[in-house]
């Protein structure tokens, strides 16, 4: 039955979670954002999902183009002709179908739905060399998944450097919130931007680990001081005095931590990644690659124009760090720049204080039955002089033509050492991962795990020892957290989601250079989740494309 697939089978595959039978929710209101029809912010979304009966369908086409996000023309990749890509919007509990077509001339493609657990649908995680072969030029495929979580995330290509050439867009899954607000302004995506392509950047990074970004974008736009003056356009949004606004922050950068702020305005943080948290107030939010924060901003200042700032951290290199700005206006007819021109201060690169990230739905961490201790190290490949990363003793290289899902389906989970596989066989038990870093080059790394929210037991600078305290009582949980330079990150998660899940650094160069590993979770249950005919069709078309064009893989594959 592995080769059989129908939409009914898809529904059954994700229906293991208890269902709350009702029609799709009409929504909450400004007086109480914590409710969601018969559910609320305290509902355990890991075990309960609304049954909306709704399927949302999206069609996406990836293609090459010439565009000028900051006024400087350059080759890019776009989704449906735009950067950022159009939003994927659903309600908590909806099913989502995404039809993808690859119109890139000589590259594969994929779409990864960042942070989604993909319960029962790991094949739809969108990672070449892991859950699929790359989608060949001219080919198309369909991803199917269920919105078992709610909040803010993003989708992006997981093929080579495409995400940072423009293949990224927001995901908004409507649900309850931990604080009230009047209006949802939607997503604000923070990006770094270079006037050479991400592929050209990587060619430099192969032998020079420090790359400086030319500029940055807010929701895909900014200005640039060119030889003939200022070109491009800043992102703008309008506040109405007295109202409160929800903003969904996303960092889609290749290699930039950002500090986000709005001059003279406080930010109330209500979610980190897909996890609602106890609200806290701050002047700014530090957000690393792949992370998301939902914030609420009160329009309570004197009417005027205010800078919205996205300032790279001290570990991030930018030619124009003070230029990554948008404008908040209280009067939509205004065209003036804000009068406050005081430069913001760059901050060290780190996550928000874990003590502030208290999940609303409390989950304690059980004792781990499997503990993995791994160190990240940087080295120069003696064969070609390229810089590489390894976790433990392995630089990850996963073959596009033989993704892990295909090995699971055809060859009884036969993997090479370079594929960096860790087996996690024990259903519903806890695994603990201790990541450390040492060596002459040790930047902070945003660590992203697919298929799970992980719990942050410990995080800091210095040396991890057996005496380092671990927080197992409702610790922060999310899907991206920072391994500090010369520091440690200790995370844990429960083995409740059979599949093959990638973990990697979300710095684009480091992923290319092998900073990744994959977890085969509950191997005995994976075969029944694979739609063999769909997988084989995509792989057969990729194989034909490779044979015709002589494509050679010179990277990690992820």
From TrEMBL:
The keyword Repeat applies. The keyword Protein biosynthesis does not apply. Transmembrane segments: none annotated. The lineage of its organism: Eukaryota, Fungi, Dikarya, Ascomycota, Pezizomycotina. One of its GO terms (molecular function) is oxidoreductase activity. Belongs to the multicopper oxidase family. InterPro entries: Cu-oxidase-like_N (IPR011707), Cu-oxidase_2nd (IPR001117), Cu-oxidase_C (IPR011706), Cu-oxidase_fam (IPR045087), Cupredoxin (IPR008972). Residues 63-177, 188-331, 412-524 form the Plastocyanin-like domain. Keywords: Copper, Glycoprotein, Metal-binding, Oxidoreductase, Repeat, Signal. This is Multicopper oxidase-like protein. Pfam families: Cu-oxidase, Cu-oxidase_2, Cu-oxidase_3. Residues 1-16 form the signal peptide.
